[in-house]
Design a protein that fits this description.
Elements: H1 22-33, H2 38-43, H3 51-60, H4 67-83, H5 87-111, H6 147-158, H7 168-174, H8 181-191, E1 194-204, E2 209-214, E3 220-224, H9 226-230, E4 236-245, E5 248-259, H10 263-274, H11 281-294, E6 300-301
Antiparallel strand pairs: 1-2, 1-4, 2-3, 4-5, 5-6
């Protein structure tokens, strides 16, 4: 049950909820939805840059960690420390902070019931006002208690995945939810972001860059991802979303990876590459998400590939 701000706190302290556990509970709720960048998806850490932060995270996840993951985390934190004064890394950190502020605001906006999604039901009808011959329906469940489910939900609602379905980012722009120019500009970058299945083609680990290629469109990207640049895996494809703001690109979102040997994904690439259209991203995303949730032994998140 949702507790009112002025109601007694459920913890039994006798204080009002807003004066007691509300802030803590809201922060815990947001942590499920706030998007990870690719490097967080790889090793499930935020961009901590000191040994104490690593140790604290280890204590929280001690049952899931193995020695390799621990070493990767320590290595990434060390690399972040040595690179933190590079101008493009400083700018990247500021952009990631801005991105998180916006996504957190959007999630609260949705949870408070302020977003009413608009769908153009007439889209795709023929000249004689008949619906399209082929109608694809997906039975998709987003488990909000699971990282992948929560991130899938964010991807579906926050970003533009279908030309006839309004996303929250559009709603924010139309209603002028933000006044600061940088946030308005960033909302447009989110709206123009590109989601797809990517192949890792190279890296510059000294500068923290990773080079990706969209396997369907062949479009190439250079993103900042300190962790991924240090431990490339050329045996996988990964589904991700790329945002570009002020000439800096970074990956964000659900971060599902697929083995290049998986027959499903090889067939999926052939089928979608043959008739590739950007406007069908929603269909492609739901196909991959459903595949992951129904056959998670064959398709793993990047975290499970470590």
């Amino acid at each position: 049950m949702k507790v009112g701000r002025n109601e007694p706190c459920p913890c039994g302290s006798g204080k009002k909820y807003k004066k007691c556990c509300m802030a803590k509970n809201e922060e815990a709720e947001l942590s499920k939805y706030s998007e990870y960048d690719s490097e967080s998806s790889v090793i499930r850490i935020h961009e901590n840059s000191n040994a104490e932060a690593v140790e604290n995270r280890v204590e929280e996840d001690d049952e899931e960690l193995d020695m390799r993951t621990l070493l990767l985390r320590a290595m990434v934190n060390l690399r972040q420390m040595t690179m933190k004064n590079k101008p493009h890394i400083k700018e990247y950190k500021n952009i990631r902070k801005l991105h998180k502020e916006i996504v957190d605001s959007i999630v609260i906006y949705i949870q408070d019931g302020k977003f009413e999604q608009k769908i153009d039901k007439d889209y795709g009808k023929t000249a004689d006002n008949k619906p399209p011959e082929e109608l694809i329906v997906f039975d998709t469940v987003f488990d909000m208690e699971d990282d992948v489910g929560a991130q899938g939900w964010v991807n579906l609602n926050v970003y533009k995945n279908s030309v006839n379905m309004q996303c929250v980012t559009e709603d924010y722009i139309e209603k002028k939810r933000f006044r600061k120019p940088e946030k308005i500009e960033f909302l447009h970058s989110m709206l123009d972001s590109h989601a797809g299945l990517f192949e890792i083609t190279g890296a510059d680990k000294d500068e923290g860059y990773v080079y990706l290629r969209d396997v369907l469109s062949n479009q190439e990207y250079k993103i900042i991802d300190i962790a991924l640049s240090a431990q490339l895996n050329d045996d996988i494809y990964m589904y991700n979303r790329i945002i570009t703001y002020k000439d800096i690109s970074f990956g964000t979102g659900i971060g599902i990876s697929f083995s290049k040997k998986d027959l499903f994904i090889t067939d999926w690439i052939k089928r979608n590459k043959k008739d590739y259209m950007i406007k069908q991203e929603l269909i492609r995303f739901l196909e991959l998400f459903n595949r992951y949730t129904t056959d998670s032994n064959n398709i793993k998140t990047i975290k499970n590939n470590l």
